[in-house]
Specification:
Elements: H1 2-11, H2 13-22, E1 26-32, E2 38-44, E3 47-52, E4 59-62, E5 67-70, E6 72-77, H3 90-99, E7 102-107, H4 118-131, E8 135-138, H5 148-154, E9 159-163, H6 175-188, E10 191-195, H7 207-213, H8 216-229, E11 235-238, H9 244-249, E12 255-259, H10 261-265, H11 287-295, E13 302-303, H12 312-315, H13 332-341, H14 347-362, E14 377-380, E15 385-386, E16 405-406, E17 411-414, E18 417-421, E19 424-425
Parallel strand pairs: 1-4, 6-7, 7-8, 9-10, 10-11, 11-12, 12-13
Antiparallel strand pairs: 1-2, 2-3, 5-14, 14-17, 15-16, 17-18, 18-19
Bound molecules: N-carbamoyl-L-aspartate.
């Protein structure tokens, strides 16, 4: 039956593409809306028009027995590309996002060369506009020589991730540079995103050592230092907080708190001690620290993947030499949906932390079920599956979640158009969408 339905939907793609030009009506039939109501969702021009009983649509998708979620907005993705195409490209990374129910990503600036000038921002936007399958925003780097004003006017969303501690392709910035950035960002009412860590010198040869050299105490101290320096009161976003103590330290009026799937689902005990596949910054912690982090679930604003693809070859290297980072944009919501299936967390929480809150922070129209909402959805079956590397789409070509329970979307919709259907991708064309200029989401400082 499900196969049958997938086939019918696939045959409808030509209609979907016509819909782009003809503004036809898409109906999602019998959607179970969180709260218990069952409604038909009528979509036109990229937006939800009506939730209730629908007439006949030009295209209809049967959703009875499925879970329909507003698609994810992932505020922390390293799309690489350029000279790092072996790790990821806009095409492979954005397809990976769609296959994981994510339709909006925010790209990080620790590219090679780093994204610190308006010209590089413009080049990045042009490259992504021609390659990406998802909506995207671009962040600008914070370094001593970065042109913050130029990048703001070129349309970046946020400044950072700003490295308070060094990481892959990112040097730590000094307190002076940080304060100058805070002053400017506060003036523009912008957002400064922070990688909060303190790093000690030592023999970084195992996961236990990696955790010891980049300890929870250093993460907490870095959060506190950044908050203390922030007298200009710029809006802060603490990336990938890895411990309950850091979450508590970051509970502050001017700060958002992001946690990654790897810090929620993995601990250093998951790996052999010298296995660099578990090497990431901040480090994976012990199982008890991981559990305490999950106990802070309600204080987490955003789940962001910190999708940091490095190749299989690089991650198989000696622990010292291997780069830090874990791919995760495709497995983020599927892992959380696995927890929903196991009744550890609720669907409204998943929607809030992967879609509503991040969209609000990004300043875009929410994806959702109400009239006027952005018609970005992912449709999930009601059954668990196990993650296999072969089924994933990142160029990185490996996953630390191999064998873990997850629920992957069968179908992803962007702007009312099916863009992912059981393994097939269709590049969206938003020229019909009167509410958007295309896939790029420019920041508020953007000057034409
Ligand atoms: C990230 C990367 O590879 O770009 N690595 C990581 O370990 N998280 C950089 C970063 O976000 O720190």
């Amino acid at each position: 039956m499900e196969e049958e339905q997938g086939r019918i939907i696939s045959e409808q793609h030509t209609t979907m593409i016509r819909m782009v030009q003809g503004q036809e009506i898409l109906v999602l039939r019998d959607v179970l809306i969180p709260g218990g109501r069952i409604a038909d969702i009528t979509i036109s021009n990229g937006l939800v028009m009506h939730a209730g009983a629908a007439g006949t649509g030009d295209v209809e998708i049967a959703c009875r027995g499925k879970m329909v979620l507003p698609a994810g907005t992932d505020l922390h993705v390293h799309m690489r590309d350029g000279v790092q195409q072996e790790k990821e490209t806009w095409k492979s990374g954005s397809q990976s996002a769609l296959a994981g129910g994510v339709t909006v990503v925010v790209d990080q600036p620790n590219t090679i060369p780093p994204l610190t000038t308006p010209e590089r921002v413009q080049e990045r936007v042009i490259r992504a506009e021609s390659q990406s399958y998802v909506r995207f925003a671009i962040n600008g780097g914070v370094t001593s020589d970065a042109d913050l004003a130029g990048m703001w006017e070129a349309g970046i969303f946020a400044f950072g991730e700003t490295f308070a501690g060094p990481s892959s392709y990112g040097e730590a910035v000094s307190g002076d540079v940080l304060v100058q950035a805070m002053e400017q960002v506060a003036r523009w009412n912008g957002l400064l995103t922070i990688h909060a860590e303190q790093v000690s010198e030592g023999d970084d040869s195992t996961l236990v050592e990696h955790d010891r050299l980049r300890p929870v105490t250093g993460e907490v101290q870095a959060v506190q230092d950044v908050l203390n320096l922030n007298t200009p009161e710029s809006q802060l976003y603490f990336c990938h907080l890895s411990s309950a103590d850091a979450i508590r330290a970051a509970v502050h009026g001017t700060a958002y708190r992001e946690v990654t799937p790897h810090h929620l689902f993995l601990s250093l005990e998951t790996f052999e001690p010298d296995d660099a596949h578990g090497k990431v910054n901040p480090p994976l912690r012990s199982e008890s620290v991981r559990r305490d982090l999950f106990a802070c679930w309600d204080q987490i604003d955003v789940i962001g993947s910190d999708h940091a693809p490095h190749t299989r070859k690089e991650k198989a290297m000696d622990f010292h030499a291997a780069p830090s980072g874990i791919p995760g944009v495709e497995t983020m919501i599927p892992l959380l949906m696995g927890w929903v299936h196991e009744k550890k967390i609720s669907i409204p929480d998943v929607i809030s932390k992967t879609s509503v809150r991040p969209s609000e922070i990004l300043g875009i129209r929410p994806a959702g079920f109400s009239p006027g909402d952005r018609a970005d959805f992912a449709i999930y079956p009601n059954e668990l599956t196990q993650i296999t590397t072969e089924s994933l789409h990142s160029a990185a070509g490996w996953s630390p979640y191999e064998g873990m329970n997850a629920v992957f979307p069968e179908l992803t919709i962007l702007g009312g158009v099916v863009v992912f259907d059981a393994g097939d991708f269709f590049r969206p064309d938003l020229s019909y969408d009167r509410n958007g200029t295309g896939l790029w989401v420019p920041g508020r400082g953007y000057c034409l």
